[in-house]
Amino acid sequence: MRVPSEAAGHSRGERALVGITAALFVLTVLHDLDHVRQARALDRELYVVAIAAMTMLTVTLVLLLRRHVLAELAAMTVGIATVLGVALVHVAPARSFFSDSYSAAHADALSWLIIILMMLGGISMALVSLRTARRLQARAPRAD
To answer: In the chain, where are the structural domains located?
Structure first.
C-alpha cells in the first residue's frame, strides 16, 4: 500500500514512470509496424516475443495507474527486459534462434532510431522505477 500522504495523487516519479511506460508502449507499436514496413519475414518465436513485450508493458501500465505495490518492480523488470531483449534480438550478430540482426538485414536509419529509443526508454524506465521505489519506501511508516 502507498502512504496516506500520497493518496490524493501520483508522485512526480510515479507520473514520470507512467509517461515513460506509455512512450515505450508507443515505441513498441511503432517498432512492430516498422517490421511490416521492412517487409521481411520473421521467425515465429519473434512474434511470441513481441506479444509478450506488449503484454508486459500493458500489465505494467495498469499496475502503475492503479498504484499497485508491485508497480515499480514490474516497471524496473520490464525496462531491463526491453533493453536486453532488443539488444539480443536486433543489435547482436545474427544467430539461429531469437535473432533479427539489424546489421545483417541492413536495416535503415529509421529502424535503428526506433530500437535505440526503445532501449533508452527501457533504461529510463528501470532507473526511474528504482528511484521512485526508494523514495516511496523511505516515506513509508515503519512497523517497529
So the answer is: 11-137
Per residue in 84-99, pLDDT (tens digit) is 999 999 999 988 778 8
Classify residue 23 by burial, with Cβ atoms within 10 Å: 0-12, 13-18, 19+. middle
121: pLDDT strictly greater than 90: yes
Cα 120 from Cα 122, distance rounded (Å) = 5
Say if CB 3 and CB 140 are below 8 A apart: yes
- The DSSP element (H or E) to which 137 belongs, if any, is helix 109-139
pLDDT at residue 5 above 50?
Answer: no
Indicate left, alpha or beta for 83 from its phi (over 0: left) and psi (-120 to 50: alpha).
alpha
CB under 8 Å to 16, separation ≥6 — which residues? 128, 132
